[in-house]
Amino acid sequence: MHNNGHITVFLSLTLLCILSLMCGLLESARTAGTRWYLKLAADSAMDSVFSKYHREAWDKYRIFLLEDKSGDQLEQDWLDYIKPYMEHSGWYSMNIESTNLMQRVQITDGRGKYMKQEILDYMKYGIFDHIPDEAGAVTMLADLKEAAAVKDLSKSYVEHTKEAVRLEHVIEDINSSLEKQKQIWQEADSCLNNYDGYGFIEKADDLKKEINRIPTLIKTYGDIADELNIQLQNTKNKKAEAMNQLSAPVQKTISSDTDWYDSYVRQDGERRKEVEALEGEVIHIKEKIERSKDRAMEVEQIIDEWDSSSDDDDDDDDDDGPDLSELWGSVRDIWCEIHISALSYTNGVKDPEKEKILEKVQDLVKNGLMALVLPEGKEVSKGVLNNNSFPSLLYTGEQGEIDGLIDRILFEEYCGRFLTNFLSEEGKDVKYEMEYLIAGKNTDEKNFSQAVSDILVMREGLNLVHILTDQEKREEANALAGVITGVTGLTPLTGLVAFFVMSIWAMGEAIVDIRRLLQGEKVSLIKSKENWRLSLGSLLDSGSQGKFEGGGSDNNGVDYTGYLKLILFVSHSSLQYYRLMDIIQMNLCAADEEFRMSHCIYRAEMKGTGVSRHFFFGGLEPVFRIDVRTEKAY
């Protein structure tokens, strides 16, 4: 009996240890399961919260937005969705004691990167035609940058040409004044030969008045020449910086064509010395004129005195009077000391009418582009954007992540699919949405004008690149420049005017291109002889009439929407994402005036604290707390 009692105690202790171990294992497993259950419940609740995305935003723009107008709705929704999990937790019995929204990322945060990600997430499932690969995108961007650099340089050099033409007009005025001086001098000399003293004095005054124009003309000439030198040096520095954006053939032609400007300035340096020398001659001539006038007055006085004395002494028949030839000869001796120079440089502009027509084309573009390019019967929308609460007001100007070329292309493709423009048929109050992405103005009219101007600049540059590499068109431009300057062969002035002609020609072709685009036709990005529309003769006719015509579509060309996408591609920045959000908000506000993109959540992180009870071995603390974090992003 004594031995059996020992066995019973030992067995009881053994069973107690085994039972404690099993309960401990069960409690540990239950605690771990509770944590996993809470994590599953938290994630599922967050998924349910984010499933309440804005349906209209998805239907219209294929983006997910979680709207939270009050700012605290997210926490309440999460609690509502996790509550059923707590009620049916069973073995893992628990409750949520507290919640804390750790992070709330709105679609307007991150300098546009979240909006970009939404777009790319959708667009990666798209099927596209004619989308270039990375190498094609690099080539396209290089071509567009080259066109922009050529256009920028041509704009500067065109202004220099106009300054040079002004300089030539001053030379013509100086030559004209010198010719007029010679004519007046001869007329005064004729008066002396006819003993017409008062007529001579009148002509001498006329000559002095004409001579007084010379210092003003010299100053005007110097001011223009100085400004031309300064601006030309600035443009040369700009050209040096832009050369790395140009292809080898364009570099060669740009260098050869713009070298004429340096030659012109060097030639003008010699001419300027001759012009400025006239100022010293003016002083000398004016002194001679005054001496001649004084002597003429003395002669007139002598003659008048003799006439008076002869009237008093009528019986003195032997006095034949003063020797008029000798008296007026003394005046003529002084008069003949006057030497009026002639400039050896007489280039000038021989056909100013054609030159003025080319300048008129430029003025028409500056002051009335819309009238030139709008098709008949088309009117510009008068839509006004109410931008008081636009997301773009939050943009600080900082550039976000640098987008890859393919990302840029996908963004522009998205805009082309979901936004309207000038050619769209949708009946909206604000119609030009893609144009707004480019310009960011508060009216359709301003946005359209800016977009058309940007396309014009792009097409000008691309057209000028073609002219510079087309020998036949270059020869036509040189021939017209020779007609305008009246100089045979290439001279510095002819070279300047030839570049001016090529630049205006490229502008005229660009006007025709835009007219075709706005008619719904296509225009080739890179021009060739076959698809070039405007001859030089037609350019002069259109310029004189103030009206450009053009029609027909290019095979494999780019339409108006395509050119808008190209502008967005070249000028891509974070601001475009904010302007896109402006458009989305504006359109969604039509159904809900209180909708704001700044209320929409892209990502959120929630922290919850759960409370559960121990089933075994609770001891002094039968309750334990579990923290859980969950996050979700579209």
Describe this structure in words.
This protein is α+β, with helices and mostly antiparallel strands. 65% of the residues lie in helices and 6% in strands. It has helices at 2-50, 55-61, 73-87, 113-123, 134-193, 197-211, 213-242, 248-312, 324-335, 352-373, 405-418, 433-439, 444-468, 471-485, 492-518, 536-545, 560-570, 574-588, and strands at 66-67, 94-106, 600-613, 623-633. Strands 1, 2, 3 and 4 form a 4-stranded antiparallel sheet that branches. α5 (134-193) packs antiparallel against α9 (324-335) and α10 packs parallel to α15. The longest helix is centred in the middle third of the chain and has 65 residues, at 248-312. The protein is elongated and about 185 Å long. The two termini are 76 Å apart. The relative contact order is 0.15. The model has no long low-confidence stretch (mean pLDDT 89).
Quickly list its features.
single chain, 4-stranded antiparallel beta sheet, alpha+beta, elongated, 634 residues
H and E order: HHEHEHHHHHHHHHHHHHHHEE
C-alpha end-to-end distance: 76 Å
Question: Radius of gyration over alpha carbons?
Answer: 44 Å
Largest sheet: 4 strands, antiparallel
By DSSP (H or I, 4+ residues per run), the number of helices equals 18
User: Which regions are unreliable across 5 or more consecutive residues at pLDDT < 50?
Assistant: none
What gross morphology would you assign?
elongated
Q: Find the count of extended strands (DSSP E, 2+ residues).
A: 4
Mean pLDDT value: 89
**Helicity, as a percent range:** 55-70%
Strand content: 5-15%
The chain-level structural class is alpha+beta
